[in-house]
Amino acid sequence: MKILLVGATGHVGSAVHSALRDTHDVITASRNAGIRVDVTDPASVTEMYRAAGPVDAVVVTVGAAPFKPLADLTRDDFTAGFTGKVLAQINLVQEGVASIADGGSFTLTTGILAREPIRTGAASSMANGALEAFVHAASIELPRGVRINAVSPTVLTEATGYHSSFPGFVPADAAIVAQAYRKAIENPYTGRILTVG
Ligand SMILES: NC(=O)c1ccc[n+]([C@@H]2O[C@H](COP(=O)([O-])OP(=O)(O)OC[C@H]3O[C@@H](n4cnc5c(N)ncnc54)[C@H](OP(=O)(O)O)[C@@H]3O)[C@@H](O)[C@H]2O)c1
C-alpha cells in the first residue's frame, strides 16, 4: 500500500514508520522532514495531499495539548488543545477523503487520557475523548468503504519525560504501539479505538 504518515519523526511516528516501511510504500510528512506540512494550517494540508497524490492509507501521529493543573487551564489552553489535536486531525480526514482509495483507511492518534485521567491532563483528556467520538461518527458516513480508526496508546517507554506525570501507568514500547497501527491499516476495521496499555 501507499501510506502517507504525518508526524513520521516523532516518538510514535518513527516507530510506526519502522513497522510499515518494509512492507509498504511510506511517504512521510511533518514540519521539518519529508513533505513539509503544518497540520494546524488547512492550506498547508491541502498542499500536502496535492504533493502526495493518491494514497491507500493515511496515518496521523501528531497532536499537542497543554498540560497544566485544572485551576490553571484557561479557555485559550482548551482551545489550543482542541485546535492542535482534534481539529488538526479532523481536517486531515476531511481534506484527505478525496485522495484516498476505495476501502482505504485513516488511522488517527488519541491516547490513554481519554479513559484514565492524570493530574494536569484535563485538556488532553478532552481532546482525546472528542477525537474518539469523531472517529465513531465519521466511520458511518465516510464514502466508498473508506475506513477510520484511532490508536489510543498509554505513555511510551521511550517518552521518559512524561513518566513522572503518569504514576502507576505501565509504559508500552513504541514498537508494540506501532503494531496497533498495522492492525488498523491491514485489517478491515472501521470505527474502532485500538487501545494499547
Ligand atoms: N509520547 C507518548 O508517550 C504518547 C502516548 C500516547 C499518545 N501520544 C500521542 O501521540 C501523538 C504523537 O506524540 P509523540 O510523543 O510521538 O510526539 P512527538 O515526539 O512530539 O512527535 C510529533 C511529530 O509530529 C510532527 N509535528 C508536530 N507538530 C506538527 C505540525 N503542526 N504539523 C506537522 N507535523 C507536526 C513532528 O515533526 P516536526 O517537528 O518536524 O513537525 C513529529 O514528527 C500525540 O497526539 C500524542 O498525544 C503520545
| Ligands, ions, cofactors | NADP nicotinamide-adenine-dinucleotide phosphate
SSE order, one letter for each helix or strand: EHEEHEHEHEHE
Which percent band covers the strand fraction? 15-25%
Q: Which structural category do the helix and sheet elements fall into?
A: alpha/beta
Terminal Cα separation, in Å? 28 Å
Largest sheet: 7 strands, parallel
From the structure above, extract its key features.
197 residues; alpha/beta; 7-stranded parallel β-sheet; 20% strand; binds NADP nicotinamide-adenine-dinucleotide phosphate
Describe the protein's architecture and organization.
It is built from 5 helices and 7 strands. By secondary structure, it is of the alpha/beta class. A 7-stranded parallel sheet has the order 3-2-1-4-5-6-7, with helices on both faces. Strand 4 (55-60), helix 3 (75-96) and strand 5 (100-109) form a beta-alpha-beta unit. The longest helix has 22 residues, at 75-96. It starts with a strand and ends with a strand. NADP nicotinamide-adenine-dinucleotide phosphate binds at residues 7-13, 30-33, 37-40, 61-63, 85, 109, 111, 153, 155-156, 159, 162.
